[in-house]
Amino acid sequence: MSDDLRPTPQPGILDISPYVPGKSGAPGSKVVKLSSNESPLGASPKAIEAFRSVADHLEIYPEGSSKILRTALGEVHGIDPERIVCGNGSDDLLHLLGQCYLGEGDEALMNQYGFSVYPIITRATGASIVKVDATNYAADVDALLAAVTPRTKIVWLDNPNNPTGTYLSDAEVRRLHAGLRHDILLVIDSAYAEYVTAADYSVGLELVGEADNVVMVRTFSKMGLAAARIGWMVGPAHVVDVINRIRGPFNVNLPAQLAGAAATRDVEFTARLNAHNAKWRDWLVSELDGNYMHVVPSQANFVMVLFPDAEHAALAFETLMQRGLIVREIGTSYGIPHGLRISIGSEQAMIGVAGILKALVKTAS
């Protein structure tokens, strides 16, 4: 059939490179997945129990505004639940923000090593994505501000940054915001906030409360509920109103709402996740950072390891894969061909990764 006799997508859609997730291994193979930044301790037992509790009521629609989950988030984080919107993963909310605030001829800015979903969201609206040079693999506030044009409508800021693990302090985020026009929406994507240990970091809640053009987006995926697909956003009342007008009417299923609420209130489990991650993140850095490999300082639940060149990175990836340890290649998706992103996993997994990579160093020297 001729191309002109079938439905065609909007201009630019077929120019978008689809998102490529981290490898998961072959079906039936015994592997340790360290490629998607999932929880090394599984999910909160309370969240699992809450998820199971609704199994006999799957025929009923969930409450449409995710009130159960918004109430729990409000209690634990000290937020007015009316300022919260929940979504089917944080990606759902990021797409909605792009759909509402970007259009043909607009621009969105991002750090050159920012989350690879931002260009997809932006281009799908007909807008252009502008990748701004980073400094030492971190977002550069001065460079971002210098890249602003009259067409700029959104600044995407993942903080900490995926895949580098770098972050901007609260002071730097505020400096970025202060330099933006009031009609530019600053989207602070705090997907890895649960794992940050830096004293000068802020998730962005205070700035959202003070400003009229800032939203903060979070996810439950990194704290044990990736399969449930739960995200949440805090923003000014006028942004919340806009997003609620177009989001799916039942966009968060009931098991996910209950599991998310239980996980939110299980602050002891979240603290255990943070402590485990901090211990083994610091340990892995101390084991790997050297002349052959350089580990970029991270505030997330992963580290980015840089090798002398792309060939050495590929060798490290394949060697780990052969030993049942799957990490994330970041050449194609993020433009760092000589790097690998390694999620923080169990004690056994971290010792295994360190041993294999250190053995490679000996072979190379």
UniProtKB/TrEMBL annotation:
Pathway(s) per entry: Amino-acid biosynthesis; L-histidine biosynthesis; L-histidine from 5-phospho-alpha-D-ribose 1-diphosphate: step 7/9
Molecular-function GO terms, alphabetical: histidinol-phosphate transaminase activity
Superkingdom of the source species: Bacteria
Entries under CDD domains matching the protein: AAT_like
E.C. number: 2.6.1.9
Occurrences of domain Aminotransferase class I/classII large (ranges): 30-349
Chemical reaction(s) catalysed: L-histidinol phosphate + 2-oxoglutarate = 3-(imidazol-4-yl)-2-oxopropyl phosphate + L-glutamate
Cofactor: pyridoxal 5'-phosphate
Modified residues (N6-(pyridoxal phosphate)lysine): K222
Keyword terms, alphabetized: Amino-acid biosynthesis, Aminotransferase, Histidine biosynthesis, Pyridoxal phosphate, Transferase
Pfam families in UniProt: Aminotran_1_2
Entries under InterPro entries matching the protein: Aminotransferase_I/II_large, HisP_aminotrans, HistidinolP_aminotransfase, PyrdxlP-dep_Trfase, PyrdxlP-dep_Trfase_major, PyrdxlP-dep_Trfase_small
Subunit structure: Homodimer.
Family per similarity comment: Belongs to the class-II pyridoxal-phosphate-dependent aminotransferase family. Histidinol-phosphate aminotransferase subfamily.
HAMAP family linked to this entry: HisC_aminotrans_2
Official protein name in the record: Histidinol-phosphate aminotransferase
Lineage of the species this protein comes from: Bacteria, Pseudomonadati, Pseudomonadota, Alphaproteobacteria, Hyphomicrobiales
Underlying gene: hisC
